[in-house]
Amino acid sequence: MKRKKELSKEARFLRMYRQKPSIWLQQKIRIEPARYRSQEELQAWLDRQPADSHSWAREQLGQGRLKLDSTRSYQTQALDMMAVPGWYAFQWCNGAAKTATAALFVHWFLDCFPGGKVLTTAGTWSQLKEQLWREIASWATRTKMPIAANSAPQGIGKTQIDIAPDWAAFGRAADQGATFEGVHAQHVLVLMDEAKAIKPEIFESVRRILRGNPGAHFWWVCLSSPGSPSGPFFDITNGEQAHRWTTLRMSAYEASRVDLSVVKQDAEDLGESSPLFISMDLGEFPEEGDDVIIPLSLAQSAVGRIVNTSGRPVLAVDVARLGGDETVFGRFRNRAFDMPLIYQGKRTTETAGHLVRMRHEYGTMAIDDGGVGGGVVDMALEENLNVLAINAGSKSPDPHYFDLGTNMAFAVRRELELGQESQDDPDVGISLPEDKRLLHQLAARKYEVRRNGQLKAESKADMRKRGEKSPDRSDTLNMGWWVRAGEVVGSSLSANSEDQRTTFGGLREQAL
Fold it and tell me: What angle separates helix 74-81 from helix 98-112, to the nearest 10 degrees?
């Protein structure tokens, strides 16, 4: 009799947790759920900002479209949506704890549906293993009461939890649809983190799981910040498939977890019309024309990729003198790009001094030879440095491009596309740092098709006319990749002082 009462009590709790997941969260996890911001806080902050700033937030607030209530948690709201099987999309801004929320979904599901299966994936293997599954493991250590994952005989693996033969959660790389087949259970959760970077064929494979489980209870959950206005995540939240999905949207103005000082800084650094600001802070899909060299989602897909970093690094330097432009030192360690040194308002002699100091670290140093960069090239050559002068305005070795700068930009685009197609191949593509200005500059530059069919990148002067700053960081990336690719094919980049300004175009033509 006592055992029956205990089972009856467990069944009642299980039913309650299924019907009200937020109670499960409150009783089992040590967490202060992320809350919405209060209307009073946002209004007071906006009142302190210039009247012509944050126009989107002011308009949305005036029309009552923002979710503002500090007594409510958007994390518990998201979890309570899971009470009913269905297809759910979370179109959230950056910094709102998407991945932590995804991890809590996994633990709630495993705890409440014995015998259930959880299939997880993400835009990249790195995102899946290093972020989502680390969150899953972390939350399993912050419990008030035992949860199902704690009872796994082998513990929580790097991408696997095996509680029983038919009760598990596991991760699959989003590169081949075949890896998503054969998932059968009475209760199935498919969770996609950073879903904007997941290919259409993977979405179709998940639909096959649904068709292969007639009568089963099925949850399909996609979480992501927006990217380019195309692809499956756009379709399920704003496109042709949106009517089939329940979508919860959230901006940084609404999420108390995002400090408003960060929003202010992003608006000032990127501009409120920047595709990156619209995606990252507003949590909206930016408008994106066909005349952008590198779409935002393409740049975002390269952030943090795991790539080959072997070999001697290559340095590229975009030179500024005084004023608001930046001098950027960009480094390629094989396919991984970063920017170890960035500064403003310093003399060209100091830039040359940094090159002398770095002379033994790099196989080749490429320097922007346009404008004030030419003086740095001269000083570097006087110090017998192995430098390569790059003039973006010079003739392109490929007649399809108006100039070398355009050719370099499209070379980066091609490599980013290859990396997006083969996300988990370390010998393909480029890895970018999570640098907001770099991503903005990559996504901001447009191009035109000239009457003779040549492609021509937008000039810096034309970019400034529409409010953009000099794309110093993206120019450095383009130059660095151009030189790095030239070294990979075995072209000798050493030449005498006079030849170095003219030779590299021909060498690069051989590489192409």
Answer: 40
